Structure formats: structure tokens, C-alpha cells
Amino acid sequence: MEENRYENKESGTGTPSGSAFLSFFITFFFMFATWIILSGKFDPLLLGLGLFSSALVAWFFHDLLFAGVSMKQAGVFVRFCRYMPWLVMEIIKANFHILYLVFHPRMLQLIDPHIIQFQTGLKSDIAITTLANAITLTPGTVTITATSEGGFRVHAIDRPSAESLPGAMRDRVAHVYGEKI
Amino acid sequence: MHILINIAAIFFLVMGLVFFLGGAVGIIRMPDFYSRLHPAGKLDTLGIFAMVTGLVIFNLHHFSLETLLLSIKMFLIVFFVFLASPTATHSIVDAGMRAGLRPWTQKKKKE
Lengths: 181, 111
Hints:
heterodimer, A: 181 residues, mainly alpha, three-stranded antiparallel sheet, 8 helices, disordered N terminus, B: 111 residues, elongated
């Protein structure tokens, strides 16, 4: 990650490479889309000011927000969009489970909080972060620590929530970022 | 047509209210710090998602560019809550672990 950023800085000072232009363009697109959504006015003057300021911000900060993007990562984006609906479905299913637990009269017998540890084979920081966030968003499990080597400690509220853990979710995240386990 | 939109909006708003109620009841009923975070951090996230969906459906009654932009702004709120909520939950749990608080377990209770 660090090396990647350094390389990008290097190429940014010389002639603009394709990667630097792409990150400039993506940053500009997000800035201008945010401008349009938040302003909601379509005068030529305001649109022109928006174009000018987003171009300025994108020029200054393109190597900060989307450092080291290339066309190869378009696949990651597409797979991430396909992964989101599955994650939302999991969140909704698991939320109903927690809701059932909370309103159950014998809740204290049903829950069984415990901590589980496991080693995922994930390598990149972004994959580990995505998995940690997905685990925390899925009710019944909260990530306590995630090391940069892919080791996880997770607090689970009951046995059924913990059983499914390193399996399907890890495989999905690994598939999104194209990692072999 | 209008009555269908109203029914959908009311359905999502009531669903959000049930999730928020579940979160509040869960915070009171759960036995310890760590297990309280489960309903607090996540039932609220889905609750805000359901409520904003209901409001967006209601808002799109009169479909125009302005209401569409307003709806997108509302979903931006949900997007940032979905980013911030797990991060906050994680940092609270991490702080508890660093301070050395032991989690409540089922075995301890049986003894």
C-alpha cells in the first residue's frame, strides 16, 4: 500500500501517467456529483463555479483520495457492487434474529456471549477492513481486533451467530478483492 | 396509487420504529457492556435505514427533480451511518478490551 502511494507521487511530479489522470478524473466526478446533489440549482453560473472548484480540489487531492487506481481495479468495483445486496440481505436476516432475542422472555438463557479467534488468509488492508466492517454490521458479532496478518478476534452473542463466521463471508470478501485463500 | 405509496411508507416507518424499540429494550435487558453493544450498534443502523426508506417513498409522492435530489441526500445520511456505526462500535469494544473489562459469560452465571 505504502509503496503504491509512493510510486504514484513519483509519477505525479513527472509527466502525468494514465493512473494519475484516472484518479484525477474519479475524484473530479465524485466532487462534481456531490456539488450537484447538495446544491440542486442548475444556473450556468453556479454549475460553472462547481466545475471550477471541483477541478481545483481534484487537482490538489487526487493522489490522496484514490491513490494508485488503475483500470485493473474496475473488476473489484463491479464485484463489490454485486456483494452489497448480499450483505444487506445478511444484515436484515441477522437483525430479525437479534430482535427475536431481545424480546424473548428467557433471553438470559438463550444468549451465550463468547469470544472466538480465527485466522483468515486475507492479505490486503482493504480486504481485512471490509471483512471487519461486515462482521460488525452483521448483528450478533462484533470485531474486537483485526491484525494486518488477517487474524480476527470476534465477540459473538450466541452460538448460531458465531457458527457461520469465518466461512461464507470471508470467501465473498476474498472473491471481491481477487485473493486466493 | 397514492394509497399504495402511503401504505408502503407507513410500513417502512413502523418497521423502523420496531427496530429502534428493539434497540432500546435490548440496551436495558442485556447483561453486560459488550452484549449491550449488539442491539445498540446494529438494530439502530437497520432502524435508520427502514425509516429513511419510508420517508423517501413518502417524499417521492410528487415526483420531480427537487424531491429526487432530496431523496438522494437522505440516502447519503444512511450511507454515512453505515460507515460510522460499525467503526464506533468497534472502537468502543476495543477500548473496553484495553481497559481489561471481562465479558459476561453463561458459565459464570451457573456457578
